[in-house]
Amino acid sequence: MSRKDALRAVRLERGNLEVTKEVVRSAGWESFVETCWQDLRFAARMLRKNPGFTAVAVLTLALGIGANTAIFTLLDASLWRPLAVSDPKEIFHVMRASSQGDFAGEFSYSYPIFQQFSKTASPWGEVFATEVVGPRKFGLKGVSDERVAREAVSGNFFSVLNVGPIVGRVLEPQDDNVLGGNHVAVLSYAFWKRRFQSDASVLGRRILYEETPYTVVGIARPGFTGIEPEVSVDVWVPATPSANPNFNWLRLLVRLRDGVDPGRAQAMFETAFRTHVGDVLLPSASPRFKEMLEAQHVTVRPAASGLATTGRKYEKPLLVLFAVVAVVLLISCANIANLILARNAARHHEIVVRLALGASRARIAWQLFTENLTLSLSGAFVGLLLSVWGTRVLVSLLPSPPLPMAFNLQPDFVVFGFSTGVAVATAILFGLGPALRASREKLEMSLHAGQRVIGSAWSGRLLLAGQLALSLPLLVGAGLFVETLHNLKSSDLGFNAEHVMTFDLSYPKGTSDDRLHQACAEIKQRLESHPGVVVASYGSSVYGDGSWSGSVDVIGNPSPGKDNDVGLISAGPGFFEAIGLGLLQGRYLNSQDQAEEPPVAVVNESFARHYFGSNPAIGQRIKLGFEPQIIREIVGVVRDAKHYGVRERVWRMVYLPARQGDSFFVRSTLNTQLLSGAIRADVTASDKVLQIEELQPLETIVNDMISEERLTALLSSAFGLLACLIAAIGLYGVVAYGVSRRTNEFGIRMTLGAQRGDIRTLVLRQTLAVVLCGVAIGIGGSLAVVRLLSSAINGMLYGIKPTDISLLMGATISLVAIALLAAFLPARRASRVDPMVALRYE
């Protein structure tokens, strides 16, 4: 046909040209999907054909991605996951904090302040109150048989959160004023289902909680367990006013209406708080307490995720560990990039053939990147499985609370999205560069492999230097945290917590003091009758909490300055011997002191030094603010003890004789299991109404106070060692690959007279240059880490000077030694090459 007839025939057969263009365009996405599917299938075949490479790469990625996912899951569950309520972003926590070093870092509020704040916020928001109470006995028909978590809340708690009932009703504002025996309670759906088998007839029935009867009026809707992510509340009751109007026991939250600025709300709360302090608290406060009140302020913090008490306590160490595992993942990426460079070098001829057959460079790069993405997603899948186990390990490292942790640690769409995003980012980090490099192969260099290998070797050395540069700061950081933990554990607390078992006693309301005194004396006598029990006593809790504070006046000796606040601890006979608190002057408290005739007290050396200087404290008389009519005589001076935590300063303490106590201390040489059984039997035999709470070694309580440091030190050390292991494996791989490619060269050198030691030295010298380059960069990063941890991240280090370079030197020497050990094995193998075999190589 002529051209004209041919064009006419084609148009008749194929139709309009514009229609054909649209058909081709519409098939573009189908072609793209088909190409991707082909690339995925090819990638799966290539990974299956190289099981060793695939296993190493997937496992390396799984460790890095799994560690990141595990810490992200815990952070999300404890800090970031929104409450299961409507519009959680409108909820804020009204905090009361202080810039001074007080007995508590975060303060609660009294019921009158809650009422004042409610009036202040009524035009632009609604304030509600809550107090989470630990596990107590729950009973049906007067039989206590299960421990549950109760939360005392204001009557508007459910209405502000827009949480309705599934059965009956929830608490209402008028329930706040219910006093006497007509108390009401709302059960959680999970507790109702577990304890009452979803029986709706529970409405109107009486339950017994802390010996107080409550009428069940409703069941909260499914999925709502309170505003603490780590606590699953079982019972909600009204927060009725305390007998002491100035008793601080409530945590306050506010839901702001649309458009209300949190800063404006904070300013108005601050004004109301200052008014209440000036009108009610300051007139009767001691000079020191006035300073504490004036230093306190109100701040409004977002609470879309609830109060998150545990999450905020461990937020700083978890974020530090998050950064650590991110660096470990970077090291893993560099290691896998080295493996892929070597693998792409081995596939040089395949890539050249594809280019010769007409494949575009973009097509080659996309295919190789698809393989890397498949590898990364496989590692993310395995890492996600590891993260489920890893998250539970993280939670197990936290101190055991009175109630089981109720974090929702099941992976959700957020966790899946995070894991997938990390996988894609990881594929870009370790796969995009090698893929682009491989796609730039030149056809004319297909027979000049040596040039290509040299380029690949230099790329591998740069990646290796980067791995070592990242590993050194991790080692230094881990060393800092380990040294901090050691300093905290070896710090002198003033008392000896070893071989001491402690427990608390709970008893029905209204139990007389005489009955409790008799029970405590009998328990003490029974426990001390066991062989192996050195001494048993009772009193206030000696570490963390349990003590209280007050003002003091010294008779005949005006107190210097305005600082007259002291810490107060009640102590029974044998108390100081039980906790190992040494006597400096005078005597300990004994059973005769319980009669309060004459009233006596024991003070610590800080108290004696502050008020009496070099004069003797024995025989001096003091008067405490909470008992203004009683004048006590000091009969003993004991060592200073850090009762409020190892990081806290030593307070001036006054120890008062106690007729009974809520906490018991037993010093013995018996093993924990045997002593625990004896304690339970003796308490039951002394008085059947008494219940044992939190039976545990005193050392456990001390260790729990440094749980943040222990968690950080343990995991940072583990991840630091993992980073060094990955870097060492990468170094071994790079050196071994370089040695295998230089076999011919080594054979020629040995034929010309080189000795085996010369070959080893050559390989190690070239490797040492890369190692020292990476370490030099890492030293700069390590100095930055030291400065960051000692200043920017305040409070994470203890007893460490930023100018101490011994730790940096130790970490540097260790890393260099590990690197040289990893390089020695390939160097040793290179020195054993048979020259005749080497000359025939390739």
Residue runs with pLDDT of under 50 for 5 or more positions: 101-105, 447-455
- Strand numbers in spatial order across the main sheet: 3-4-9-6-8-7
Classification by helices and strands = alpha+beta
* C-alpha end-to-end distance: 58 Å
The quaternary state of the protein chains shown equals: single chain
Radius of gyration: 35 Å
Q: What can be said about the biggest beta sheet?
A: 6 strands, mixed, barrel
Helical stretch count?
25
Give the integer mean of the pLDDT values: 84
The percent range for strand residues is 15-25%
Helix content: 40-55%
Count the beta strands.
Answer: 22
Describe, in short, the structure shown.
With 842 residues, this protein is α+β, with helices and mostly antiparallel strands. The chain contains 25 helices and 22 strands.
Description:
- By secondary structure, this protein is α+β, with helices and mostly antiparallel strands.
- The strands form three sheets. The protein has a six-stranded mixed β-barrel. A six-stranded mixed barrel has the order 14-15-20-17-19-18. Strands 13-21-12-22 form a four-stranded antiparallel sheet.
- A hairpin with a 2-residue loop joins strand 3 and strand 4.
- Helix 11 runs antiparallel to helix 15.
